[in-house]
Structure formats: C-alpha cells, structure tokens
Protein: DUF2884 family protein
Organism: Psychrosphaera haliotis
Amino acid sequence: MKKSSLVFGLIAAPALLVSSATFAHNDGIVTEQCDVTFKNKVSITPEHILVIKGNQTIYDIYNNDTIFYKGEQIKLTASDNALISRFSNETRSLIPTITEIALEAVGIAFDGINAGLGQFGDSTKLDSKLANVKERLEEKFANQDGHYTFEEGSFNMDFADEELDKAIGEVVEQALPSVIGGVFQMLGEAIANGDTDFTELENLEANIEQEIEARAELLEEKADIVCDKVEELVFLEKQIQAAHPDLADFDLIDVKHKN
C-alpha cells in the first residue's frame, strides 16, 4: 500500500463528511437569492390579509377583493379592485412555495451528509435529526387552517440558516467518531487483504457533489421564481398606492436581489 493512500484514507472520510455538509449548506442549497423585508406585521387568514402597525390594523384585505383602511371600506373602481384581488391571491400562493423550498433545502443538505458518511459511518442518527429540523420548519411556517403571521423585519430566503447550521453541527459532531472508526476498520481490512485500491474513497467528494448538485440547481430556480414573484408584488403595491389617497401607505414588502 502506498503511504500517501494510507494517509489520504485516514483523513479523507472525516473531511468529506464536513465538506459535504458545507457544500450542502453554502453552495446554493439554502438559497440566498434575495432578501424580503416586511414593512409591517402581516397576518393572513382564510378571509383576511391584515397589515398591522403597533396594535392597530391599518389595512384589511377581505375576501381577496375588498380593502379597509383603519376599519373603513375604501371604494375602488373595478380595475383597482382587480389589483387588490391579484395582490391578495398572489401573496397567498407564495407561502406554500416558500415552505416547500425550506423543507427541500433541508432534505438535500442531509442527503449530502448521508452521501459523505457512505460506508464509513452509521447514518441512522441523521434520520431523527432530519425529522426534527423538518418539524421545526413546519412549525415555523405552519399552515394552521390557513393562518400565517409574519413579523415586521427581514424575511430572507436563507430562512432555514439557523436551524440547518445547528442540525448539521450536531450531526457532524455525533457522527465523526464512528466515521473515523469506520475508516480505520476499512484500512485494517484492506491491509490484511493486501488491497491497495482506494479509488472509491478518492472519488467520494466528486460523487457527493454530483448527487446533490442537480437538485440544488433546481432549488435555486424555484427560489429565483419566488424572488421574481415578490418583485411583482412590489410592483402591484405601487399601483395600489396610486389608486386612492388612503392607499398611499400600502407598503407591505420590499425585495433586494443578492446576485
């Protein structure tokens, strides 16, 4: 056995476990396509979209086509009502997509770590970690009979960051001892059998990237679509603001592309 192959075998698998997590997290899995900011607290129910400042409801879109300003209905033309309806429907349609992206991002990241573990460690612990992170994300963006609340402030597309960072750190910390043990066991068996072929180990990082890269690109495309739709909402806001003097402050969201 070549000395370089032995050294590579000792360090490669643990390093690849970490690099698979890094690849999954930093190279587009948890998307960073745009920053979305809510200008005020927004509460969405099956019948209402409420814009709340402090303890007061400033705007209330009711049944997708009627809007109230501080409790008083604003009389609009049919074309302006159509703007309100479009804004309401498109806002509602975004939420399931955002939740789907969050959950899919976590799934791809953990698949990358699973590929990193491969034959060198026990991946069963990942299952419970993945389930835990998904559960927390589902709670964060839960559809409770159509009720959602978003606080004032930044709502970045990298919203899973904190949960994913913590989960990946825990998984790597717990899995690393078994991975190192698995590598030593594999090397011991290889030495005993006179096996000097470590091609599979040397190609592991490329295999990890190949496995998750295509899915990451698809997820980035979804995130781009979400960002574009939010930009459309911002454009609709400007049209709504011009429709009536009482709608001049109808300013819910802002979006900035990172790329």
User: Anything to note?
Assistant: The helical segments are 3-26, 78-117, 124-140, 161-193, 199-202, 204-241. The chain has one domain: 3-39+93-248.
